[in-house]
Amino acid sequence: MSASKIKKIAVLTSGGDSPGMNAAIRAVARTGIYHGMEVWGVMRGYSGMIDDDIFKMDSRTVANIIQRGGTILKTARSKEFFEPEGRKKAYANLKKRGIDSLVIIGGDGSFKGAQKFSNEFDIPCIGLPGTIDKDIAGSDFTIGFDTAVNTAVEAIDKIRDTADAHDRLFIVEVMGRDAGYIALHSGIATGAENILIPETKTDIEELVANLTEKERRKKLVNLVVVAEGDEFGGANEIARIIKERLPQADTRVCILGHIQRGGSPTCLDRLIASRMGYHAVECLMTGKTNVMVGVVNNKMHYTPLDKAVKAKQKISEDWFKIVKILAS
Ligand code: F6P
């Protein structure tokens, strides 16, 4: 499909929702319509493409959604799309409407599906990184991360109040099955003593020694922030061991869970979603296809979808030094 021929774009959200997805949908729809294209919305990610749940959007379809969390297109993780039969059905449903391009707002799993689809069929795809986990290389930001981390910070600040009142040790679990960015950022921003994430090896002996030393120095507020995907286990497992090894500590667990995925997107998430949505359409118009649109050093950055699939962000060693020194 040559760039000049693109006339009908379909947009969908896939995988875990993230705050700001609606702002991205709005940007894709309004930019496409501005350039005289038809824009179609697909419900429930790739499932809607297979089940033919696709509708034509207009500028009003996306009115009053920039400030809303969730996604008006709903989302799903489709197993069927990973089977050739599923993708064939999906293609047929696009084809019968003359839809000739696709914008996918989601995480690396969703890009994996897009990559396969665009290899098999003549449908250029553009990915926008929509995930609270920020676990996609090729962008300094992902849509939803800023909101999620601010939700975590607000909650942990509240936990700190009650921890302080009772001289308790709190193990707070935040989201991040494969990535520790929410834990790292929220932990640093709330002054956590220790931050446990899947990207680094968790040394439980070091954690116990650290907490024991702080107890000896009568450091009263103790917050440990753990990403749910930490290889040692989540907050319950960490707390179980601490209770065994430090029975004198009054230990509590708080698992923040899906509260981190909802809520009104922050200004930053609305901005990056709008910018990325706008550039997704620009990409399709200029023939820059099968890429993920990112922002690096405040400039647009385009990563081939197959690289966005495989790469994971590396966490700089610097962060750990900062945690150690500032929480001493
Ligand atoms: O969207 C990413 C994520 O929030 C992960 O951090 C988390 O592990 C996962 O999704 C939870 O998925 P589900 O909502 O399907 O339980």
Task: Provide a short characterization of the protein structure.
This protein is an alpha/beta fold and 328 residues long.
Cα-atom Rg, whole angstroms? 22 Å
* Helix-residue proportion: 40-55%
Strand percentage lies at 15-25%
Associated small molecules: 6-O-phosphono-beta-D-fructofuranose
Write down how many β-strands occur, each being a DSSP E stretch of 2 or more residues. Answer: 11
Give the total of domains: 2
Cα-to-Cα separation, first versus last residue:
58 Å
| Overall spatial form | elongated
Based on secondary structure, the structural category is alpha/beta
Average pLDDT works out at: 94
What about the largest sheet?
Answer: 7 strands, mixed
Poorly predicted residue ranges: none
Spatial order of the strands forming the largest sheet: 3-2-1-4-5-10-11
Number of helices: 11
Oligomer: single chain
CATH architecture grouping of the largest domain? 3-Layer(aba) Sandwich
Which CATH C-level class of the largest domain is it?
Alpha Beta
- The name of the CATH topology of the largest domain is Rossmann fold
